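Our consortium's second objective concerns turning raw sequence data into structural hypotheses that experimental partners can test. To show how far this objective has progressed, the report includes one record in full. It was chosen at random from the queue rather than selected for favorable results. The single chain below, 177 residues long, was entered without modification.
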Amino acid sequence: MLLLPVLAGAQIDTPEGRHTKDAAMTYTPNVIAADHTGFAVSSLDEAIRFWTEALGFTLERQSEMGGDFLRQVTGVNDPKVKTAIVTAPDGYVVELLHYSQGHRNGVLPDSAGSIGAAHLAFTVKDIHAAIARVEAAGWKAKGSPQPIPGGPKKGTLVAYVSGPDHITIEFMQPPAG
């Protein structure tokens, strides 16, 4: 049994010839799928409007939860969170979370290069139309569409847009033909 020596603190041989306690984790698949992406937001209504009106997602449901369950799951000492589930046209799920004490938890700087900043990338048919829709809804593009110069996605037009709470979305328009 491979796990018994590892659980006891022993080192094992990896295929590369190194000895490590962590190697056993590579032998057992753990993550089997991506379920959803969640964002903490300062205004649930504004976030829902961005995701539905500007990005074309569908609002599936809204709910509230809190108390000890929330604290134990998240480690956040916040008694209540309002949530909304929105889905992309292909079914991808985004969870929006408005914590009752959210502003006291801090905000993400408005820079895609900030430590801890993240983004979601969406494939679009027309990047210029997608940016126009975001801007018509009151948000902004962070830059202008540019083609990827090389690699497996060469020619794909890409651009970042920013939604409420500085959430960054990358639009990707594959090359024609």
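The partners drew two points from this record. The CA atoms of residues 160 and 170 lie 4 Å apart. The chain has a mean pLDDT of 81. Both points have been shared with the crystallography group to help prioritize constructs.
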